[in-house]
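Record type: ASSEMBLY
Status: queued
Input:
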Amino acid sequence: MSEDILHQLKNTLIFGGLTDEALADVAHKATKRRLSKGNILMRKGEEGDSLFLIHKGWMKIVTEDSKGGELIINRCGPGETIGEMALLDQGTRSATVIALEDSDVLELKKDVFEKILDERPDVSLSIIRSYSDRLRFSTTYIERAIDWAQKIAEGDYSFVEHTQPAMNKNASDDDKATQLLSAFFTMVNRVKEREEGLKQQLEKLTFEIDQARRKQEFEEITSTEFYAQLKEQARALRQKRHQG
Amino acid sequence: MKGKIVSIHSFRGGTGKSNTTANLAAQVALAGKRVGVVDTDIQSPGIHVLFGLDENKMGKTINDFLHGKATIREIGFNIGENSSGADGRAKLAGMNLWLFPSSIRGREISQILKEGIDFNLLNEGLQSTIKEFDLDYLFIDTHPGLNEETLLSIATSDILIIILRPDNQDLQGTSVTVDIARSLDVPNLILMVNKALPKYDFAELQKEIEIKFEAPVAGILPLSFDIADNASNDLFSLSNPDHDWSKALRGVAQAILALE
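Status: finished
Output:
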């Protein structure tokens, strides 16, 4: 097994915590597979009986959109693992994976994977730890996303300024939580822009009062005997009320 | 001063005057005040519908009073004791709010208009209403325009609220009403804009109207299909308290309550 593959395994989420010796053992039990461009690595709905480590080449992860068309939900490249979820939770494949170019992958069969877990408590513990880390990371960000969503609802976007720089630092991290955050902040910025745009689009209503007409109409009403009498009655009434 | 007369007026019809009057009176009553609402729109009465008063059950009216056929006590319809039938109105249960309706019968309407209304008789009527019911505020829903009975209501009011839509015709007409109100020494003049299209900058609009008329604009209420569709004839600010229209309306009610 090449140093290259060992290095890649070490960089994966589930095997990252293993010692070199344990990694070599995992690598040894895996089988190499070669895919040509357009080959399907797994199909959505199939039973998941193995996980893959991409050694060389790029894959697209696709599902169907509401109209039955292909919807690419992600792309994966060298060093990334695919299918580990179905292996652990015994569910079916959640998406279809197709090679975008000629690629090499390392396949670890379910029975082999489970055997490793049986024989090597250190590997089991490492996998549990890595998932626990990921869960904690996700939960923290979900909590923060809830807090931010409440702020957005109130029209308070101030958190964007002091949160975003810290996030950009981790932009190279491929973690899904980071991708979600990135999409979240893009959304917030667009909403903010649109809201400011709307504010600026408010039209100014201008009107002019015809002062000559205003004066004429006022005089028409106030020049009658009725009005003169009313004005006098109203004056007397106000005086009485003021005193009373 | 106790017992303020608040006249609600608009230069043209269709400004939402009766709806605004009913909602303002309800909000002031909810603030714990004793409130009366007089419908002096004798030509086209309508405010009783918003208060859920069935026309078939309508007893003595303002018209009877003006003809000396009824006392003020007999005319007052207690809203606080008859507030069921709609979600919004139900919130008025136990409040001190009375409606003094105008007759909807054609013959009685034309009779009053032919004879004309006497200022002193109307005024005595309003004052005795305030006294008999120990009112803090008496709202008068007037007929649009500047005819004689509307001039009477303006002349007798302590607070005049002019409702206008933000268009040239209403603004032109309102300018004359503002001049009349000043000529008749009305102590407090408040403008309220209703049915404003949300695309306008409300803050700018308020500033411009206040500068042009030298009078405060207590609220700019948005045009809303929700209100136009008030099929249940309920009091909208009570049935939809979180609506932008209702929020702005409460601002106008606060402006009334703030006047000493």
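Annotation: The radius of gyration of chain B is 17 Å.
Annotation: The interface with chain A takes residues 119-120, 123, 146, 148, 151-152, 155-156, 166-168, 171-172, 175-176, 179-180, 183-185, 187, 199-201, 204-205, 208, 212 of chain B (CB under 8 Å).
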